[in-house]
Specification:
single chain, 159 residues, mainly alpha, extended
C-alpha cells in the first residue's frame, strides 16, 4: 500500500476548501449561496443557544459576505432545505429528505400512542405558537413538581 504524505499546509488548504472557507464567497452570494453551502456540507447544525447570534448564522456569515438571517427560513418555506433532528437539529438539503424516512418510520413503530392529556397539551402548545409565533421554553409556566433529572430539562428565562 502506498501512502500519500501531505504537508500541514496542504492539509490546511484541503480542509479550508472543503469547509468553504478558503476563498471569499466561495459558494457565491445571496440566498443561493446559503443553499449551496448546506448542499455542500450536507448538514448545518441549528444552534438555539447564542450570545451574539445563533451559531448556524455564524456558519453562513463566515462564508457569505451579504448573508441575511431570514434566508434560512425562506429556503425552508420554499422547500429547498428542511430542518431535521438527528443527534442534533440541523438544516439539510431537501434532496436528502428520503434518507430520514426509515428513521421516522422506526420511531413511529416504537412510539407508544399519545395519551389524551398529551394530545391536549400538544394542541395547546401548537395553538399558542401559531398565535404568538416566536416562543421559547421560558415562555411556558413551569409546573414541575419534582426536581430536574438532568441538564436537558432545565428551565431558564432570559431577563
Amino acid at each position: 500500500m502506498e501512502y500519500l504524505v501531505l504537508t500541514i499546509r496542504q492539509v490546511r488548504k484541503i480542509i479550508l476548501e472543503a469547509a468553504g472557507l478558503a476563498l471569499k464567497a466561495q459558494f457565491g452570494t445571496g440566498i443561493e449561496a446559503v443553499y449551496r453551502i448546506i448542499d455542500h456540507l450536507g448538514f448545518v447544525q441549528l444552534d438555539t443557544n447564542f450570545v451574539v447570534e445563533r451559531a448556524h448564522h455564524h456558519v453562513m456569515a463566515a462564508r457569505i459576505p451579504d448573508y441575511q438571517t431570514e434566508w434560512l427560513a425562506e429556503l425552508c418555506e420554499d422547500g429547498s432545505i428542511f430542518e431535521y433532528f438527528t443527534s442534533a437539529s440541523g438544516f439539510l438539503p431537501m434532496h436528502d429528505f428520503r434518507f430520514t424516512l426509515p428513521i421516522k418510520k422506526a420511531f413511529k413503530a416504537q412510539r407508544k400512542p399519545l395519551t389524551q392529556a398529551e394530545t391536549n397539551l400538544m394542541k395547546q402548545i401548537l395553538d399558542r405558537a401559531e398565535r404568538e409565533e416566536s416562543l421559547t421554553v421560558g415562555d411556558f409556566e413551569n409546573d414541575r413538581v419534582e426536581a430536574s433529572s438532568g441538564w436537558w430539562d432545565w428551565r431558564l428565562r432570559a431577563s
